[in-house]
Amino acid sequence: MSHAPMSQQEIEALARELLSAYDTGQMIAVPPSARPGFDLNAAYAVEAILQHLRAAAGHRTVGRKVGYANKAMWRALKLETLVWAHMYDNTVHYGPGNSATLTVAHPRSLKIEPEIVFGLKQPVTGDAPTAADAAATLASVDWLAAGFEIIDCPFPDWKFQPGDFVASFGLHAALVIGEKVHVQPDLIAKLADELAQFKVRMSRNGEFVEEGSGRNSLKNPALCLAELGAAIANRFPSHPLTAGEIISSGTLTTGHPTSAGGLWTANFEGITLPSLTLRLA
C-alpha cells in the first residue's frame, strides 16, 4: 500500500524528534522508514532541516560522511547510489599527531570504523565515475588522512534503512582525523593505485581484530569521493561538494562495537599514511 509523501509539517516534526534523540541519547522505537510517506526524498528534507536547527544552535557543517559505499548493498536495498549526511564543527576532531582521546556524549551503542578522509581544494561534481576517474578526482583533493568514524545508532538492534541513516545524522557521533598528507600533483597516479590496493589492520587493546582494504570503499576511496560528488550534484545541483569540505569516504572494515576504555589502532600497508590510535574515554 503506497502512502502520500510526508507533509512539510510532518518532516519538520520528525527532524525535531531526531534532533532531540541525538541531543539526549534517547532511542527511537519506530524508525522513520516504518512510518507512512517516508522515503529518501523525505530523509534528505529532514537532513536539511537538521542543518538549519544545528546552525541555529551555533554548529556549522564542515563536510559529509558516506553511507553504503558498497554496490552489492545498492542492489539489495534498491539504491541507485550511495547516501550521505553532513558532519559538524563539534563532531570532527583532529588528534594531536596520530593519537587521540575522545569522549562521546550520550552514547547508546557505539561502533568504530576506519576510513580515508579527504580535504577538498576545489569542487567535486560530474557524472558517476569510471575506474579512470580516481586520479581525476584526486586533483580536487588538498590532503588525505586516516580517520576513525564513531557511529551510534538510535534504532533498536542496529536495524535501519538508508533513509533512516540519512535522517539520523548518518549515525555520525564523531570523526577523528589523523595526520594530514598533502596530495602532490606529480604523484596522483601512484596515489590512485595505492588507494585501490592498500591494507589496513585494526587492533583493539593490542589484539588484532580485522584487516580491511581500500577496495572496500567502492573499490577505491577516490572513486567513492567521485560517486559522492556526482550523487550530490544530481540531487542538489545548487549545493555541490565544494572546496574546504572534509569527506569521510566509507568504512574499510566492518564496524566494530566499542565502548569507554577501548584503545584502537589502525596500521596501514601499501600507502604512506601514519598509523592512527584512538582511546575512548
Fold topology:
Elements lengths: L7 H17 L15 H17 L4 E7 L3 H7 L5 E6 L3 E3 L4 E4 L7 E11 L12 H6 L2 E12 L9 H6 L4 E6 L3 E2 L5 H10 L1 E6 L2 E7 L7 H15 L10 E6 L4 E2 L5 E7 L6 E5 L1
Parallel strand pairs: 1-11, 3-7, 4-14
Antiparallel strand pairs: 1-2, 5-6, 5-11, 5-12, 6-7, 6-8, 9-10, 9-13, 13-14
Helix pairs in contact: 1-2
Task: Offer a concise description of the structure.
The chain has helices at 8-24, 40-56, 71-77, 133-138, 162-167, 188-197, 221-235; strands spanning 61-67, 83-88, 92-94, 99-102, 110-120, 141-152, 172-177, 181-182, 199-204, 207-213, 246-251, 256-257, 263-269, 276-280. By secondary structure, it is an alpha+beta fold.
**Mean pLDDT value:** 94
Number of helices: 7
Query: How would you sum up the major sheet?
Result: 9 strands, mixed
Query: What is the structural class?
Result: alpha+beta
- The number of domains is 1
Helix content: 25-40%
β-strand percent reads 25-35%
What is the CATH class name? Alpha Beta
Shape, per Cα inertia axes: globular
CATH architecture: Alpha-Beta Complex
In whole angstroms, how far apart are the ends? 47 Å
| Spans where pLDDT lies below 50 across 5 or more residues | none
| Alpha-carbon Rg, integer | 18 Å
Instruction: Find the CATH topology.
Output: Fumarylacetoacetate hydrolase, domain 2
CATH homologous superfamily descriptor: Fumarylacetoacetase-like, C-terminal domain
Number of strands: 14
Order of helices and strands: HHEHEEEEHEHEEHEEHEEEE
